[in-house]
Amino acid sequence: MTVTDTPFAGGIVGEARLRKEDPALLTGEAKFIDDLDLPGALWVACVRSPHAHARINSVDTSEALAVAGVVAAYSGEDLADTWVAPLPCAWPVTDDMKNPAHFPVAQGKANYAGDIVAVVVATSRYAAADGLEGVVVDYEPLDAVVSIEDAESDRVVIHEDLGTNVSYEWPLIPDPEGVDAAFEAAEHHITETYVHQRLIPAPMEPRGVAVVPAPHNGDMTLYSSTQIPHVLKVMAALTLGVPEQKLRVIAPSVGGGFGCKLNVYAEEILCMALAQRHGVPVRWTESRTEAAGSTIQGRAQRQTIELAADADGKLTAVRATLLADMGAYLQLVAPGVPLLGAFLYHGLYDVPLYSFTCKSVFTNLTPTDAYRGAGRPEATYAIERGMDALAVAVGVGADEIRSRNFIPTEKFPYDSPAGLVFDSGNYQPALDRAKELIGWDARMAEQAERRAAGSTTHLGLGISTYVEMCGLAPSRVLASLNYGAGGWESATVRILPTCKVQVVTGATPHGQGHETCWSMIVADRLGVDPDDVEVLHSDTAISPLGMDTYGSRSLSVGGTAIWMATEKVVEKAATIAAHMLEANPEDLELTGGVFSVKGSPDAEVPLAGVAFAAFTAHDLPDGVEPNLQAQVTWDPPNFTFPFGAHIAVVEIDEVTGAVDLIDYAACDDCGNQINPMIVEGQVHGGIVQGVAQALWEEAVYDEDGQCRSANLADYLVPSAAECIDMKLDHTVTPSPTNPMGVKGIGEAGTIASTPAVMNAVVDALRPLGVTGMAMPASPMTVRRAIEAAGGGAS
Amino acid sequence: MEVSVTVNGEVRTADVEPRTLLVHFLRDDLGLTGTNIGCDTSSCGACTVLVDGRSAKSCTMLAVQADGADVTTIEGLAGEDGLHPMQEAFHECHALQCGYCTPGMVMAAVSLVDEYSDMDADGVREGLEGNLCRCTGYQNIVKAVLAASE
Question: Most Cβ neighbours (<10 Å): which of A368, A736, B44, B66?
């Protein structure tokens, strides 16, 4: 580990401190959405189209209404007047982007299997499910568009009023002639095409919604298993016309999100409308199988990457061309997901010329949107797979091709060819350390021995280095990308009369350990016990300002706001302490919870005394308001750019095609760390999620647009039995973008592990003539690749 | 139908529909919401409880099948002197993040350790195959179960 200066002096930040979130979660005391006790609540169940594309000729709810416990049933037509606006897409990436109207309940036509066509309201969850059986819908099935290529051809136009299935085209080509010239002059011109299969995010807690109305005074409380209560409040107010000041949104304990709870969903708006209509609480809990058609999916794009390089393998230009599947409608930030990768298709390599183009299309499949990494795993996959292809062409090792192209450390801050400024980086040590952890030389020797011996159990080594842009995001940059909101975060730090502390944050955790980490940041500065710091979040009545949690932003944006609010409250406390000590505020220092005068060790007053004095307000300096509280809203000047190197080792049985991940090492650099235990946990989980894309997971659709892997029996979320222990280390290259020097770690593992594993798979099979492999690398896919390449043993 | 189940040491009787799942009986009738539901195919194990001392997926049993049985849920695991050693080990080893799979994972682990002594990491991994976690990558869960089994 690299030793660097840290801004933390309290001895608390940097400790592997156990989480304060755990006791409630370990005992069943935590309340997730379905745990809420809401007396008198009605249960909602959704009738979803079984067809991927169909006209709705009629909806007959009469039999449903006869079912015991059913109190109401509605078709899309019945509710048509309820909506003030369609469900929101907040990221119109181009001025001419095509965006079909998307209402919570479809009218006239269903555009994917899962589109809600009617809704049943009943007195219990069982009665609501019974009611579904009684709704009779007359469908006229239409040809379904289930591939991006078919979509692009406009053979069938899904949204007739748009006239095309193409939603938008978005180019980023700063110097088109330069790129063309570089490819013409290139010694090596690599062209590779990869497909990112659709993934089901599958947080262990399905989504759920509950709405409690107060019909007489107009208040409404929306509970949702969401990552974004603050954004949801604004969007829900706009979509339903509920006055925003009357709306309170609460995310209770949220059982994972991974991006799929970063959305505004039909069921949220629908439950609000039904609660308004019935005047009583209304609730809906998603079933796992239902989620395949009710919650967004991830990835789903085809990418072509071209690399131009000189004879030594030094890159001279990178060109990436994407075709992305938006699904049937544009969800909240879906159009922007490819753009989050658009700037990173050259990876962490020093490349002068750059070209990126994305075309996004509609299909008759579940809408897509952000999934852990959102755009950056796709970009990293393309460049890292491409670099291995380049290494083979040049005739050097996968490690060497990367070292030759890394952005040199002295070039930071680095002006990237895509127009970003990479804040800080030091790439070679991370790769060196990952190689050391995995025992690179010994593994290479083992591979050579097996090959020489003609073994049919092949060993493959795969490297992926990565850089990502985190800390979404500078509001002005978001404006330039047409995003509909800013990227700031808000924090309030409040020292109570008894010197206990409240921190109010707009970041919204769902497993990340924010309460533990934010307490550590504040306690480290104030010199109090972290257990005396309470973190309040996820309720817009308590935390009215916020932009929520996604894009590895919570620490670098939200944490920075907390850091700054703490500094501000210390400044005020110092003014009061100076008054009490009859000293100048600038002569005071706060150490271990005590203000003392520099050079006069006897002149001191504890923070507790200052807090109480601020509360009584009996003797405050002129112009100083009572109480110790400060609020800060921080808008970052830049993204942060974490990086690292991951190495996977796989073993492949040539006969069966089975791939075993047998070793994995990672060296990540997320700048200064608040709690290394939590960092490691994020990396562990992230790696496994990315490995799962490489080896196991795929939302499989048939030619009619039916999801064949809709539940956890068919969709292969890995269990402990498929996973292995990972070897982790880190380097520390602080970010200059924020005062704590932090970067973000929530998505790194997922970004790096997919290409590392796939590079290892291809590396293992290269002696058999295999040069590419589709994901997931299932035994069948691997066997077919071996056979296509000329056989191997059978 | 009337069912009578000893839950966390206390006899609980309720009138339920015959089709009521054990997990819904625990959650909706008894208010024991610590046991979670993560799927509808008996795949994820979030709903794992102990039935007569052995782990069982409570979404895969009807409440009436548990009539007369002894059921322990996550709420019944901690004693007067604090957390159960398995809960303590999960805390110490950072074996949970969002915590949604945790009650089921802990109950499955308690049963596993009770059933098999001297387990190694591979044994723990195989033994917990029926419980999915999306956050942790399992490394710290395995560590915790091994620590608690010592």
Answer: B44
Chain B residues in contact with A719 (beta carbon < 8 A):
125, 128-132, 138
State whether residue B21 is helix, strand or coil.
Answer: strand
**A488-634 adopts what CATH topology?**
Aldehyde Oxidoreductase; domain 4 (3.30.365)
pLDDT tens-place string over residues B8-65 = 999 999 999 999 999 999 999 999 999 999 999 999 999 999 999 999 999 999 999 9
Interface-testing mutation among A19, A27, A716, A725, with chain B (most B C-beta atoms within 10 A): A27
Order of strands across the sheet with B70-72?
Answer: B10-15, B2-7, B70-72, B48-51, B54-57
CATH class of A298-472+638-788: alpha beta
Q: Point out the residue among A34, A255, A717 whose CB comes nearest to the CB of B99.
A: A255
Q: Which residues of B fall within a CB distance of 8 Å from A712?
A: 38-39, 41, 43-44, 132
What are the boundaries of each domain within chain B?
2-76, 85-149
Domain B85-149 has CATH 3.40.50.1820: no
Question: What's the pLDDT tens digit per position in A165-217?
Answer: 999 999 999 999 999 999 999 999 999 999 999 999 999 999 999 999 999 99
Give the pLDDT confidence of A403-456 residue by residue, as tens digits. Answer: 999 999 999 999 999 999 999 999 999 999 999 999 999 999 999 999 999 999
Q: What residue spans in chain A does CATH classification 3.90.1170.50 cover? A: 38-142+206-254+261-291
ipTM of the complex: 0.99
Chain B residues with CB under 8 Å of A674 CB are none
> Is the domain covering B2-76 a CATH 3.10.20.30 domain?
yes
Query: Which of A24, A256, A678 is facing B100, going by the closest CB pair?
Result: A256
